[in-house]
Design brief:
The complex is a heterodimer. By secondary structure, chain A is mainly alpha-helical. Chain A has helices spanning about 15-35, 40-60, 70-95, 100-105, 110-180, 185-190, 190-220, 225-260, 265, 280-305. Chain A contains 10 helices and no strands. The radius of gyration of chain A is 24 Å and the shape is globular. The radius of gyration of chain B is 15 Å and the shape is elongated. Chain B contains 4 helices and 2 strands. By secondary structure, chain B is mainly α. In chain B, helix 1 crosses helix 2. Chain B has a single domain (about 10-105), classed as Winged helix-like DNA-binding domain superfamily/Winged helix DNA-binding domain (Arc Repressor Mutant, subunit A). Classes of the chains: A mainly alpha, B mainly alpha. The interface between A and B is medium-sized, with 23 and 21 residues.
Amino acid sequence: MRRAPEDPERLLRWYPSAWRDRYGGELVALLEDELDGARPTVGLRMSLALAGTRQRARSGGLTGDGGDPELRVRTGALVVLTGWTLVVFGGAAFAKVSEHFGDAQPASAQSLARGAFAAVVVLAVSGDLLVLAGAALALPATLRFLRSGGWSSVRRRVLWAAVAVVGLVAATFGLAKWAHQLTVHQRNGGDLAYSVAFLAWGVLAAVTLGLVTAAGTAIARRVSLERPVLRAEGALATVVGALATALTVATGLWWAGMARGAPWFLAGTRPGTHPSPVTVPLVFVEGCLVLASAVALYGAVRTARSVSAI
Amino acid sequence: MSAPAGPALRRANDPPLLILTSLASGPKHGHALAKDIEGFAAVHLGPGTLYGAITRLEERGLIEPLASDDRRRPYRITAAGSTALAEAVADMRRLADVGAGRLGLTLGVTG
């Protein structure tokens, strides 16, 4: 049985709607000319999906140097915010991996790891403060946006984020209460039920961070910022991107310091042994932080390149 | 505001350069562009690639659409587009001259 020819307009669903309004009719006419009644091939579908996604990224200010520099700065700053959210997630995992590391080392081998850990803390606090400063700068414009009827366009995302935050707070209290009843050994993998609950809490924390970031991004994309505020946001985003990269380097130095001075701490083996310092949790943490800093750095570079044009 | 032609017109098989070269002989719509380019450069530009390049060229003011009652809207090269194309062709000519000189070849002129 022959299938009905596919509507060429459906092939353009990857493109942003504003682009479709301008070029969609022409591209559909071209597709009709090229296909001449035949069904589109998989290659053509993939090519259009890729081209549409690229156009979406360009139209949103995520790639390319054309278009509105204010949009590029705003999108770059939001990319940095997304990267910093990943840093927070990776940082929380790093805090767990490095918990009580100072007790496990001989004092003579502590300098690099301790210095790197102190740098991680300073960089993390500095980045968090700058993100809060950015949010405070955007607060007046955000309130104007919400008062002028913008609430309905972001309500769903904000409510989802709020529900997730409430759920995370409740789960955190529950988990902390449970943890107080357990020994150190039970808290660190000795109790299967607690380990599963801790993993579930980590997933919930990641989902909550994602939902809060999505809500913040949805608001930030719609808020109209004055140029001086946008310039300040761009400058803050550039610094936060640099801090994210420095933080990732510092966690790597901590890892190197521990690998040199007390590899048994990283592997969880008996003191004095020399196991491999490359462990699955640390690879996960560093992978997450490298990804986070790459995202933040990309946003920071785009912001820095565009902020002078506004 | 249009951006300078810049490095986007540096490679001979760049879709923007192929489109400008095609439009240098007169206005064309998408399908006619694709066929012409296939004829003179043996390069098939897919619909997504073609319209991605058309979008960028129009944003930079190197081509402009002509009024049309049909969905098949023709485009023509602008003065800025002609200048950018001339610069790119001159760049390629210089490179071709160096290559030909080193190989001892004589370059012909085609219409």
